[in-house]
Amino acid sequence: MKKVYLLFALVAFGMLSCSEDDNSNELPPSSPDLSQMYFPPVTSQEWEKASISDLGWNGDEEQSLYDFLENNNTKAFIILKNGRIVVEKYFNGGSASENYPWYSAGKTLTATLTGIAQQEGLLQIDEPSSLYLGSGWANITDTQESQISIRNHLTMTTGLDYNVVNTNCTDADCLTYLNEAGTFWYYHNAAYTLLTDIVSSAVNTSYNNYFNSKIGSPIGMDGTWLRLGYAHVFYSTARSMARFGLLSLNEGSWENTNILTDTQYFEDMTSISQDLNAAYGYLWWLNGSSSYRVPASETQFNGELIPDAPQDLIAGLGKDDQKLYVVPSQNLVIVRLGDNAGASFLGPSSFDNELWQKINLLIN
């Protein structure tokens, strides 16, 4: 009988040992491949992260970047690499739940939405804008009106007079003739703002509804468009701006969902759109050209828009230094939101280059 118990004990011990050995040989769960593109879930706040050390970046420069951001009135700052959050910081009373105004950085949303309306056959950007605004939308002749296309609104080349008291005013009396459409580039906010009415008329619903159904909801953005006087400004959290940046990094696709399917439109939108300002696409700012023009100026400047930024950078740039940077060559999306960093411009400012000097020390 003792032999039976002994045999049973040995067998049981052997099974236990095998079981322990099997467990010890199991591989730990595999880590995500940080080189693969990642998209956060649309219906939750989950978002994969990657650390500065994981990416081999220079952690010694991390605090210096944060000090620079905080000292320059930044409230929210995010860096995505391959879609994962590497840096997410809030300063000066900012928070992850706060809705920030994009100001003119939101022009990039309008450019993308206009492309979606075109791919759906609801408008064509080479059509006269009067088809959607109606006649008499500006204080110009019918012939002059017919020569202004939607493309001109997208590229800041309408030829409308920018020497008016309020360049945001979209009343017909504020919109007078100065140059033939397509012959001069000037950052005229009123001409841009009219795209809201053009798109709304073309799609036969409110701008907010169309935006939410075509871009906001499909990629999990929060936020809304609000009227501030004549201006139409988008407000959202910093993460929502990062989501749109990720959509743009992937040329209008969100994982397996194609949002902007017209690849030619995307290429045109993010390339030099006219021969008057080499730093401007369809409402996107472009780096890497040998000259540029800026808001509130008729001067052409020599050199790159942001010399220390990657040459292939495309950007949404708004008043008070709202920044959305997209860098395809490095799979980077960078968001900066907050108050004026010291240079009071509508879009590009000296802060862009100063910030990129700090970013380069971290990522290189």
Automatic annotation (TrEMBL):
The keyword Transferase belongs to this UniProt entry's keyword annotation: no
The keyword Phosphoprotein is annotated on this UniProt entry: no
Domain of life of the source: Bacteria
Membrane-spanning residues: none
InterPro entries: Beta-lactam-related, Beta-lactam/transpept-like, Diverse_Enzym_Activities
Gene3D superfamilies named in the record: DD-peptidase/beta-lactamase superfamily (3.40.710.10)
PROSITE patterns: PROKAR_LIPOPROTEIN (PS51257)
Keywords: Signal
Annotated signal peptide: 1-20
Domain Beta-lactamase-related, first and last residues per copy: 76-337
Protein name: CubicO group peptidase, beta-lactamase class C family
Organism per entry: Aquimarina spongiae
